[in-house]
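In this notation, each integer encodes one residue's backbone shape. One such record reads:

___
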Amino acid sequence: MAETQTGLDDIDKRILGELTRDGRASVSAVAEAVHISRAHAYSRISKLTSSGVLTRFTALVDPAKAGLRSSAYVTLKVRQHSWRELKEQLRKIPEIHHIALVGGSFDVILLVRAEDNLHLRQVIFDQLQSMPGVLDTQTFLVFEDLDVR
């Protein structure tokens, strides 16, 4: 099997694909799907975990069915050199489900999920816009979510 520059070969990639589809799959099920022995699958999954390629196993939640019926991507323009402090403050807000530092016309993009539009408004106006270091926000409402993996 050929390895890529990341050190992952075809078997590693197939294991990652199986675990991405079903993070609760047993080692035996992964081994069977990838056509390797259970011991080999266990060894590969352990290596992927210890090397940091697999960072955690988690469940995907349907936000609407979980009572989070309002979602938005919120972009932030921030003061230079405020990122380290700002990211720690953002991590403490439970409504924020994803944080990314990006390049372009804004600095940070957030995925914010809330119970309804009033709750979403409170997060944006009362929490995000009042943070030191946040210069500007822009909100893009999500009308439909599609998970592709």
Notes: The first strand starts at residue 70 and ends at 78. The helical segments are 10-21, 27-34, 38-50, 83-91, 117-128. The chain has a mean pLDDT of 92.
